[in-house]
Specification:
This protein has 227 residues and is α+β, with helices and mostly antiparallel strands. Strands 9-12-13-14-15-16 form a six-stranded mixed sheet, with helices on one face. It has a three-stranded mixed sheet with strand order 2-5-4.
Length: 227
């Protein structure tokens, strides 16, 4: 089969383009500045430090890919992109994992996907504590129970009591929330009606709420209270 001049021209252009792309891939670019975008909790300077690229570094495409892979393994980030600008700017784009709850056992916050965030090693106001969860390689092992704990944390926040407190699994496979000097037990799987009863009890009987030490809502249409 003969190849016409147009075919040869296209083939030649393709070879030239491939050569140009290979040249761009192999040619190092001197890093003159590091641009970081997408940060919410971490400072941009901290992300740049984690990238570990010093200004003046001669960086190839392959080296940028290795920096991207290394940053992507850091638990702080769920997504990372590292690209070289031809003018010398190293573009680092990240999506951070957001702390969802506090875990006393690990001494740090946990993200919604169950990954431990060791860089958040101080509990902030409003973080509900979760206890009793084992981790392996920095990830919560019982993901189903952890998902339910997150749902419980959301229902607790909606109550607006103020004290985030601590939630944990009970031996009876329910949940216990310790807050405001009280221990309150809920069913598992969660029953939204139990939270409705708790809210109505607080509003209708403030003196009883103030004096209650233990509350159990795992009974249909009633609340059991003990000092």
């Amino acid at each position: 089969m003969r190849t016409g001049w147009r075919g040869r021209a296209w083939l030649g252009a393709g070879v030239a383009l491939a050569g140009l792309m290979l040249g761009v891939w192999l040619t190092p670019v001197t890093v003159r500045q590091v641009s970081v975008t997408g940060t919410e909790k971490l400072a941009r300077t901290e992300v740049a430090r984690l990238a570990g690229v010093a200004l003046g570094t001669r960086m190839t495409y392959g080296q940028a890919c290795r920096v991207e892979a290394a940053l992507g393994r850091h638990p702080a980030f769920s997504r990372v992109s590292v690209t070289r600008g031809l003018t010398g700017t190293l573009h680092v784009r990240v999506t951070e994992r957001v702390p969802a709850v506090w875990c006393p056992r690990t001494g740090c916050a946990l993200a919604v996907d169950g990954i431990a965030l060791p860089h958040f090693n101080r509990r902030e106001a409003g973080w509900v504590g979760v206890d009793g969860f084992e981790t392996a390689k920095g990830v919560v092992t019982d993901r189903a129970a952890f998902a339910e704990a997150l749902e419980l944390a959301g229902l607790i926040a909606a109550l607006g009591i103020g004290d985030a407190g601590l939630i944990r699994r009970t031996p009876a496979e329910g949940w216990e929330w310790s807050a405001a000097g009280k221990r309150i037990r809920f069913s598992s799987p969660l029953v939204p009606a139990e939270f409705g009863r708790l809210g109505r009890f607080r509003e209708a009987y403030p003196a009883a709420w103030a004096g209650a030490g233990r509350l159990d809502l795992r009974f249909r249409d009633r609340l059991v209270m003990k000092p």
